[in-house]
Amino acid sequence: MVYRIHFTVDDLARTRVSSCSLPLMELSAAVRTLQQRGHAGRFGAWRRRALADLRPEARMVLELIRTRRWAPDFLTRADAGPPEEVLERVRATPRSRIRGDLAHVAADWPLPSWARQLADDRELFRRLCDSLDHTFSVLLSPHWQQITSNATAEEGMRMRQALTGGMEHLLTTANPHCVRWSAPVLEVTMASGLDGDLHLQGRGLLLVPSYFGPRWSAVCTASQPQPVLTYPAHSLWDGSELRGGSGPSDGSGPWDGSSPWDGRSRGAPPPQAERHRAPPSALVALLGPTRAAVLSAVAEHPGCSTNELALLTGVAPSNASRHATTLRGAGLVRTVRYRNTALHTVTSLGTTLLDSPRGLPSG
Questions:
Q1: Does the pLDDT at position 273 exceed 70?
Q2: Closest to 6 in 3D by CA, of 233, 227, 198, 226
Q3: What is the pTM of this model?
């Protein structure tokens, strides 16, 4: 059984990759991954730390978000924004929605007995929201900066896939384990075994990378302005951030395909290779003019390759590579590899440095 997402030409034109993660959908993936035993190399240490740090109050969330089962939409909805704001919105969920979401879940599997009173018992619902806050703080908060910065890298990577092979290539490579393109329908095999149809009706689809969803895709049909489909964030393929490591130094990962700039005449600039604006003077004083220019160019052109970075800053590719390596070692730049091409994006620390009026993070 598969879930079928029907596309029109307008839908394909409006389909895009998100540059940010969605806190509740990512938390849902993390809770489910916590309850599984697979991917021990990637998640084993994280599971052990999480299970040691979770308090008994987390039980409420773990009992409502189950592996391969529907969960109440108000706990897993595709809201964008800072985690604290998204979590606060859950507390304002209308009783009618709580009641409707729970009825939908109850049709799939038996709810815990205590959950049947959630819509009518505000104190019980407050305790569930406290449980949600606590679960997020343990499972995701320590990694949220990495998740956020990697979403930008993921967006750049997927944009290159679309440029290389078109939207069909993007849709079929996002999650080949359970997603198949059979024009004009995207067939998604769901962990829950859901069988159904979604007609996008010109809205397009938002593809969202999932850090803690290493295998299955999830769909949110109620998301506005367009439905959401999650897919494994392959640029985080080794999970080194979860183990406290710095990741592969060369940014390598399990990527296929070629760079859209492969085969172009040497020295011909990419379309976006106009010179970037000058970096702030305070940043120049801190890093030096060339390194400051490299960091500024990466921030303005996320996902740029080393050759593109050289063209943007007017330095030799070898110098661009050397400066990017230094910035990566300082935690200001993240590098992933698309086949034979290194792609650079600024980290949250690099963004803070660029946004600071004195060129130094406050605090």
A1: no
A2: 198
A3: 0.70
